[in-house]
Specification:
Number of helices of chain A: 11
Largest interface: A-B, 46 and 46 residues
Oligomer: homodimer
Distance between the termini of chain A: 60 Å
Radius of gyration of chain A: 20 Å
Strand content of chain A: under 5%
Helix content of chain A: over 70%
CATH class of the largest domain in chain A: Mainly Alpha
CATH architecture of the largest domain in chain A: Orthogonal Bundle
Shape of chain A: globular
Number of strands of chain A: 0
Number of domains of chain A: 2
Mean pLDDT of chain A: 93
Structural class of chain A: mainly alpha
Low-confidence stretches of chain A: 1-9
DNA sequence: GTCTATAACTCGATAGAC
DNA sequence: GTCTATCGAGTTATAGAC
């Protein structure tokens, strides 16, 4: 080990943000403690205020980053040129993969938006609507061609997101009910890439 | 008005619990303030400690009650004698109805369990497993009879719960994205009783 | 049982030395 | 840029009068 003990390859600011992310994601704004973030980063509490002026500002950096991770993922794929069923498949696979790597993200985002819905205004929709428009056209076209049943874009999107996000958000509950061990749960989520895709396509296919 | 100003028909303890539920559900354990609960109940802060010894104990009462509202609802229906598709329909309708009347419940429960997973041990499973066993038999029977595709109970239950719970938990986000006004969202959830039932049954029907 | 006043403590933030 | 020490606001909890 030629590395120093405390994350020596990252500069202080990066280490602070990494620790802040970890603590805020798990405990939320109200539950997180600056002391705990400082300890995790291996620095002093005063340093947090030196780099980020206040807890609120440090939190905002973490929240903004989280929002940018969870929202554009969807529109990027929805706006692409893939055929409908392929698009649904890729969306589900990519989204579950992103969530596997950020298990605390859904509850973190939803809890903080529930506290303060105004946090939404900064993040929702730029070219989101363009991507939705594209997906809307895909669905209308597939309906006209008799490929899928008479459904609507809202139902399809909300149901896909539900099936991807909830099993991540409710991990402790689901693993408790079905007696799935901590380290098996990732395999379960991995298997859902396939099963959710099949579930959704079968539900809308004519 | 022959009633007094501050909820006179309920005794103090009940009023405290009502206010505590309201505040804790919205803000969580860490974010809630005893002062705010006292104000909402129209009493003094000291009274909270008179009836419930501490914030933690008051919170526990609220959490326990919430858990009892959100979990047994499922097993009650899963353990019933309804035919499979009818059982799924009733489960979805009842669950969405319960959630409509308790919009903050999902995030509250999931956020607090994320904070402290040990809260689960007190609440999960008594005769839950008996109900699951019954539903498992329903599904195996329907498979054997060629009525539904080759699926498993875990997929079916997790997907149903996902489709019911997530749209409630993510209300601020979804209403923001699709531009649904506050008071229209309840109608949307109401309409999902039918659409989710159809979605699920079509997905598993042979 | 209900209130006021306050103790005891936690936590975000800052001052100031190095 | 990093640390120690400490302030001051806010919060839970309690003491004690009525």
């Amino acid at each position: 080990m030629d590395k120093k003990v405390i994350k020596p390859d990252k500069d202080t600011e990066k280490r602070i943000l990494d620790s802040a992310r970890k603590i805020f994601h798990k405990k939320g704004l109200a539950g997180a403690r600056m002391q705990e973030i400082a300890d995790d980063a291996g620095i002093n509490k005063a340093m947090l205020h030196y780099y980020y002026r206040s807890k609120e500002k440090l939190f905002s950096a973490v929240f903004q980053e989280a929002a940018e991770r969870i929202f554009p993922e969807v529109s990027k794929i929805l706006g692409s040129e893939l055929p409908l069923f392929e698009k649904i498949k890729v969306l589900i696979e990519n989204y579950i993969e992103m969530l596997k790597q950020n298990m605390y993200l859904p509850i973190f985002i939803l809890h903080e938006i529930q506290q303060d819905p105004s946090r939404l205004v900064n993040i929702i929709m730029e070219d989101e609507s363009k991507a939705f428009m594209k997906f809307f056209q895909d669905i209308e076209k597939a309906k006209a061609e008799g490929i899928i049943i008479n459904t609507d874009i809202k139902t399809v999107i909300v149901n896909i997101l539900s099936l991807c996000i909830f099993p991540v958000a409710a991990k402790p509950v689901i693993s408790g009910i079905f007696n799935i061990r901590e380290n098996e749960y990732m395999d379960y989520l991995e298997s859902r890439k396939k099963s959710v895709t099949e579930f959704v396509i079968k539900a809308i296919k004519k």
